[in-house]
Specification:
The protein is 23% helix and 25% strand. It has helices at 36-43, 110-115, 117-129, 150-160, 177-187, 209-212; strands at 2-7, 13-18, 51-52, 60-62, 71-72, 75-78, 85-89, 93-98, 103-108, 134-137, 165-167, 173-175, 218-225. The strands form 4 sheets. The protein has a 5-stranded mixed β-sheet with strand order 4-6-9-8-10. Strands 1-2-13-7 form a 4-stranded antiparallel β-sheet, with no helix packed on it. A two-stranded parallel ribbon has the order 3-5. The longest helix has 13 residues, at 117-129. The model has no long low-confidence stretch (mean pLDDT 92).
Length: 229
């Protein structure tokens, strides 16, 4: 389990937790596992806003704890305290954006990035609490393990430039997922994420659909902790 935090300008603090396989499966399915709520509450004991993700660009605005839980979207944003917002991932990048008085969590796979999920997250955050002042990228697949089809990779290169192309350990063409996320964050005017927080989901410590066909999912959850005063 990885923990990260950042202070807001009003004295509150954004807390972020990114889980690993050892922390349990956070896959959202039907029916939901009986212990999924217990796993969530063990991280932060408040109603979570969790999402049914579709690799799109919709971001919900959460005004109270648990609002929009189960919504079909790929991101959530809040400015209220004690309202956990979360995404689940296996290889896609979980992205957290912190504004002066709010936070956004985004599910950024290659399709979502191409659809503009990060830009939409920046737009909604900026409109409600100012431009992003910090960012975090959690565990995702890295190019050494991400062989990518020529047609899709060429389309991404056309959209984002040649820097998104890399090579696998065996020399095959690959997509640099974290590199693409960093590029989009930079183009959106966001501060660069701390590179020391990045982990590759090809590591057996994480769930990975791409490398092992895992059904399980990590979660990345963020919430605003009220100031002590």
């Amino acid at each position: 389990m990885q923990r990260w935090s950042h202070a807001l300008t009003d004295g509150r603090t954004v807390r972020v937790v990114a889980t690993a396989a050892a922390d349990g499966d956070f896959f959202v399915g039907e029916p939901a596992p009986a212990d999924l709520e217990r796993r969530r509450r063990s991280i932060v004991d408040a109603p979570w806003t969790w999402l049914r993700q579709v690799h799109g660009s919709d971001v919900v605005h959460v005004g109270e704890p648990g609002e929009h839980a189960g919504a079909t979207a790929d991101g959530a944003m809040t400015t209220v305290s004690n309202a956990p917002i979360a995404v689940t991932t296996a290889d896609c990048a979980p992205v957290v954006l912190v504004g002066a008085a709010g936070v956004s969590v985004l599910h950024a796979g290659w399709r979502g990035a191409a659809a503009g999920i990060i830009g939409r997250g920046v737009e909604l955050l900026s409109a409600n609490c100012g431009a992003p002042i910090a960012s975090f990228v959690g565990p995702c697949i890295t190019p050494s393990a991400y062989e990518f089809g020529d047609e899709d990779l060429d389309a991404l290169i056309e959209s984002f430039g040649p820097a998104v192309e890399s090579r696998t350990v065996s020399g095959q063409r690959a997509l640099d997922m974290p590199g693409m996320v960093r590029l989009v964050l930079d183009r959106s005017g966001c501060p660069a994420p701390d590179p020391t927080t990045l982990a590759c989901t090809s590591d057996p410590a994480f769930f990975s659909h791409r490398t092992r066909g895992d059904r399980g999912r990590q979660t990345t959850v963020a919430w605003i902790e009220a100031s002590a005063s």
